[in-house]
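Hi all, posting the design record for the shared folder.

TITLE: backbone redesign
STEP: 1 of 1
STRUCTURE INPUT:
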């Protein structure tokens, strides 16, 4: 129970950060929607992801594990179906620059917006898990 609660809080916070940083991710409503979405995302990761991993094992083996990245995208899409107040749409990434590395502006279609959002979401959640690791 403690683990599900912790993952729900992490997913809720990660969704909040994602909505702040990416202009294509919109969450209508308030604090309650983030909590509900975080709980549903935690349940999806606990129940649906192992089934998807088992079904997609041949694709995962052929792609040397890269297909598991798209499983997170599928779970994020399922979340937007269950929680209609969360929408992910096409957007333009306005680029970034850090220590001499420059990422130029580029447009993301809806599919790539889901992939990009799933990647950023997993980075945030993994960072939060790393912070509290005992």
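Okay, here is what came back for every position:
SEQUENCE:
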């Amino acid at each position: 129970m403690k683990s599900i609660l912790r993952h729900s809080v992490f997913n809720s916070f990660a969704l909040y950060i994602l909505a702040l940083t990416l202009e294509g991710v919109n969450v209508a409503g308030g604090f309650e929607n983030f909590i509900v979405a975080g709980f549903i995302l935690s349940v999806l990761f606990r129940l649906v992801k192992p089934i998807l991993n088992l079904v997609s094992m041949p694709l995962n083996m052929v792609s040397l594990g890269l297909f598991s990245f798209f499983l997170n995208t599928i779970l994020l899409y399922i979340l937007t179906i269950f929680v209609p107040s969360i929408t992910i749409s096409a957007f333009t990434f306005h680029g970034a620059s850090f220590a001499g590395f420059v990422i130029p502006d580029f447009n993301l279609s809806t599919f790539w917006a889901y992939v990009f959002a799933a990647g950023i979401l997993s980075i945030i959640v993994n960072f939060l898990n790393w912070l509290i690791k005992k």
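COMMENT: Residues 28 and 85 are 5 Å apart (CA to CA).
Let me know if anyone wants the other runs.
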